[in-house]
Amino acid sequence: DRRPAVAAAPEPAPRRKAFDFTELPQVRQLQMQRAAAEMMGIGNPFFRPHDGLAAGTTTIDGKVYDNFASYNYVGLNGHPEVVEAARTAVETYGVSVSASRVVAGERPIHRELEEALARIHGTEAAVVMVSGHATNVTTIGHMMNKGDLILTDQLVHNSIAEGARLSGATRINFPHDDLDALERLLAENRHKYEHVLIIVEGLYSMDGDFPDLRRVVKLKQAYDAWLLVDEAHSIGVLGATGRGIAEHYGVDPNEVEMWMGTLSKTFSSCGGYIAGSRVLCEYLKATAPGFVFSVGLSPALTAAATRSAELLEREPERVARLQANGQHFLKAAKAAGLDTGPSAGYSVVPVIVGDSIGAVTLSNRLLERGINALPIIFPAVAEKAARLRFFITSEHTFEQIDRVVAVTAEELAAVRAGGSAVERLIQ
Ligand code: PMP
């Protein structure tokens, strides 16, 4: 018997520097999708670098485009007063506040911004955080718990879904903007949970429509629920002076527990906030992990947002221009036979294409015609709801909108006439 008395030790696995993530099926899937798109000659519309400021027009690689892909809703990004405020703040406080506000990061400009936001929303107080996404995640994650229920419109933003997941509360979606379904869910479930939080958006960024806030408020009162309204796409957009969906409907802002907003759109900065009662805002400042354990908003971003808020208050004609442009775009798009879904024609107007490859192809063809509008494709929306989204600003002109709508209708017809990219490839 030549067998060794003791079994040989297994060979040690070869050492490698770091894990190769292409071993993950989901990473390989993304790589395959990209390779397939390249084979079909569909350029990648994402991550395109812009040369400078993006407003009604933008410059990409030296060429000027009509821009319908930025959230610069009331045209304040790059406004001389906003730039000057940011510059002065950097000169006074430096680029960073270098600590959480709880420790050494508090600056007087943080209070000024929070006062301006509370004024605009008509609430007692506000609290600002370093990102809109983080604001939803930490606020919802922190305020709700296991044993609570969160009722969300099915189209709410990812940051709301993430916050709900973090909270450990039960989350139930209701079909988009179906307030009868919301009422049924409240009737069936209210008694089973300690706290119930309803979450809607002031304007939905996929469909460009908005809920009947008066009815939502009645429902939350009737069922003793809390309400969070995400005003990312409605502040500076809805209402005669841009104070959002409460102003649009004449709802008392103090009927709503939590107003959430971002600083990255109308306020031409970066960050997020909650506006509401003083008690709520003080509680979040003292305990919300995304506030307590994160750096304070940078001086430039803080001052830029404050000046933008002041300009919004001072120049309501910006809101009127945005609203006129949104209505004009919607009317022109409908007249041209485009499918704009349920859009109400304010900050967001989708043009539904019906398949992801078609939406990407249309976006690329528009780029060739000098128009920057980006696709939303599966899995962000259902395949048959793949679309282009047009973000409207006060800086667009009617002539520009007319041309863009006409070219979009023409190119969409050409995309449809050519069949899908897959069909073309196998022909
Ligand atoms: N809420 C909604 C409805 C949004 O659309 C967004 C981002 N577009 C956010 C929150 C997150 O805001 P931010 O990009 O400022 O982090």
From TrEMBL:
<protein>
    <submittedName>
        <fullName>Aminotransferase class I/II-fold pyridoxal phosphate-dependent enzyme</fullName>
    </submittedName>
</protein>
<dbReference type="InterPro" id="IPR015424">
    <property type="entry name" value="PyrdxlP-dep_Trfase"/>
</dbReference>
<dbReference type="Pfam" id="PF00155">
    <property type="entry name" value="Aminotran_1_2"/>
</dbReference>
<dbReference type="GO" id="GO:0030170">
    <property type="term" value="F:pyridoxal phosphate binding"/>
</dbReference>
<dbReference type="InterPro" id="IPR015421">
    <property type="entry name" value="PyrdxlP-dep_Trfase_major"/>
</dbReference>
<keyword id="KW-0808">Transferase</keyword>
<keyword id="KW-0032">Aminotransferase</keyword>
<dbReference type="GO" id="GO:0008483">
    <property type="term" value="F:transaminase activity"/>
</dbReference>
<dbReference type="InterPro" id="IPR050087">
    <property type="entry name" value="AON_synthase_class-II"/>
</dbReference>
<dbReference type="InterPro" id="IPR015422">
    <property type="entry name" value="PyrdxlP-dep_Trfase_small"/>
</dbReference>
<feature type="domain" description="Aminotransferase class I/classII large">
    <location>
        <begin position="67"/>
        <end position="406"/>
    </location>
</feature>
<dbReference type="InterPro" id="IPR004839">
    <property type="entry name" value="Aminotransferase_I/II_large"/>
</dbReference>
